[in-house]
Design brief:
The structure holds two protein chains of two kinds. Chain A is mainly alpha-helical. Chain A has eleven helices and two strands; from the N terminus they run ααββααααααααα. The two termini of chain B are about 30 Å apart. Classes of the chains: A mainly alpha, B alpha/beta.
Chain lengths: ~290, ~250
């Protein structure tokens, strides 16, 4: 085989692989919409998205997913309330206060935490945090939205810390020097110059952390409690979208309304996480433009 | 020529770790005049400048010996408040470094940080400072636009305005025009002459022509020492030390 033919062959093989990965992804999205769209026609978008009763196995069944969306939102927001202050403070500490030698050891360690399988978080939440919260608050069960929020918050921490720290250290040193030369203290410089400049990068970190939290399945399945009613309090069990799909799909007849409704939830989830990723991408671009382009 | 000494440097020695960057420097910098520091790269001029506003404190493992006295107080004594010092001694850097904020917010940054909250006062301070930096006319209609949209020369004048806004007595300028084109440079030099009426200016420059043009006194640095220091005219026309003459005539540098 001469070299020209070999080059052509390699090119085509690579093309086939690239095409197939694109095809898999597109295929999944197509199947997702094919299986799930019918429920929107059958029930109506408004009733599906805003209906407050998710009773798919009743007769007659009811497919309102507002309790599930609310549960996902509640648990994600809770996770962020927990993770953002801790994560941001940690990243400021790492960038500005920690000596370099320790930083080179701590940062990779935190990033390793991102690799812990979610089922382990679920285990911890179910058997350690859950009973603990049950005792403290005197609850009937420790498997609640709060438990899930805390566990998801911990899971999101490595992402938030790592990306925020990157954003903060990317802020050019000259801004810090300018602020200090004007008589600024270290903390004034951080809060008035560094953090505002790094803000789009930090928003990216938070968006990606939120994307992770809302798409998390195993942990919430084990920890959130499983009641598909509208969440009235953070100390009650809830059923986020991911846990619903995971818990109910196994026993649902293919092609039934319930089946299509679960795919419908998947579509909603897909669109939400897609939006988070798009926003994260836009803010990341804006951040890089701010610190380097200008 | 002013008779008052604004900054008195006595037996100053400075170390980065084990490396001695400044050796036995003694200098009296007069008030309300422009003092230029010249010398080849790496000879300690910028380090010396940063000693005066204690920006070297930010670098680990540095050591200062000797005294730097402003208005009767040694900057390195323990009662000195570094924040107050840096209000009194402003600095303009080689690369213009305005914050990624609006023009107004850049100039107002210092005063706001030091407690000024009244909007009218801030507007007045911003205008005065921008006038002082010969930039007001060019930006008065775009105060709330991003500072980073300005040209390099304008950004540098903005940095000067920003430094002036905290009402310093001394301005340290580290090669302020080296990143600028000749037209912008000329504007900055013109501005300096004006500023010297009210401020004591110390400028580090690589351009001997610039030093000859703008300064009243010149100090020649070589390998961490001040070889010669005196009236600019004398240094350039009739230096005492052979090394000074060699540098000025371009035999090295």
């Amino acid at each position: 085989m001469d070299w020209k033919t070999k080059e052509k062959l390699i090119k085509y093989i690579l093309l086939i692989f690239a095409m197939s990965s694109i095809m898999f992804l597109t295929g999944i999205v197509i199947v997702l919409f094919r299986e799930g769209l019918p429920i929107f026609y059958k029930i109506g978008i408004i009733d599906f998205l805003f209906g407050q009763e998710w009773y798919p196995t009743y007769d007659p069944a009811s497919f309102g997913i507002l309790p599930l969306i609310s549960a996902s939102v509640l648990v994600t927001l809770g996770a962020m309330i927990f993770a953002v202050p801790i994560g941001l403070s940690t990243s400021v500490f790492i960038s500005y206060i920690m000596p370099k030698s320790i930083k080179n050891f701590i940062k990779p360690t935190i990033e390793l935490l991102a690799g812990i399988p979610s089922v382990i978080y679920g285990l911890f939440g179910m058997k350690i945090l859950g009973p603990f919260l049950k005792d403290i608050f005197g609850l009937p069960t420790g498997l609640t939205a709060l438990t899930a929020s805390i566990m998801l918050g911990i899971m999101a921490l490595p992402t938030i810390i790592s990306l925020s720290e990157d954003a903060i250290t990317s802020v050019p040193k000259k801004f810090r020097d300018a602020s200090l030369a004007l008589g600024g203290t270290r903390w004034e410089t951080i809060s008035k110059v560094i953090l505002p400049t790094a803000s789009s990068g930090i928003v990216t970190a938070i968006m990606l952390g939120m994307g992770r939290a809302i798409g998390e399945t195993m942990t919430v399945l084990m920890v959130a409690g499983g009641a598909s009613a509208m969440p009235k309090s953070i100390l009650k069990p809830v059923r986020p979208m991911t846990a619903t799909i995971a818990a109910e799909m196994g026993e649902t007849p293919v092609g039934s309304n319930h089946y299509q409704a679960l795919f419908g939830i998947a579509i909603v989830l897909f669109i939400i996480t897609l939006s988070f990723n798009i926003i994260a991408d836009l803010t990341r671009k804006r951040f890089y433009k701010k610190v380097s382009g200008k | 020529m002013s008779e008052n000494v604004k900054i008195e440097i006595k037996d100053l020695n400075f170390y980065y770790d084990d490396f001695q960057a400044l050796k036995n420097i003694n200098m009296n910098i007069p008030e309300n005049e422009i003092t230029a520091l010249i010398g080849p790269s790496g000879c300690g001029k910028s380090t010396f400048l940063r000693v005066i506003n204690r920006m070297n404190d930010l670098i680990d493992h540095t050591k200062v010996k000797g005294e730097v006295i402003i208005d009767g107080q040694n900057l390195y004594s323990s009662e000195v408040d570094v924040v107050e010092l840096r209000k009194k001694v402003g600095m303009v850097f080689q690369q213009p470094n305005p914050f990624p904020k609006t023009i107004f917010d850049n100039v107002a940054y210092g005063p706001r940080m030091h407690g000024e909250k009244n909007k009218n006062n801030l507007e007045q301070i911003v205008e005065e400072s921008l006038r002082g930096a010969a930039l007001w006319g060019e930006v008065k209609n775009r105060l709330y636009q991003p500072a980073l949209d300005l040209s390099g020369g304008q950004q540098q004048r903005l940095c000067i305005a920003r430094a002036l806004a905290v009402k310093p007595e001394i301005l340290l300028m580290d090669e302020p025009a080296s990143a600028l084109d000749p037209v912008a440079t000329a504007k900055i030099e013109e501005l300096m002459a004006d500023l010297a009426k009210n401020y004591t200016i110390v400028i580090v420059t690589h351009s001997m022509q610039q030093a000859a043009r703008v300064s009243n006194e010149t100090g020649f640095f070589l390998m961490g020492e001040v070889i010669e220091y005196g009236e600019t005219g004398k240094i350039f026309e009739n230096p005492n030390d052979q090394r000074t003459e060699d540098y000025i005539t371009g035999r090295f540098g």
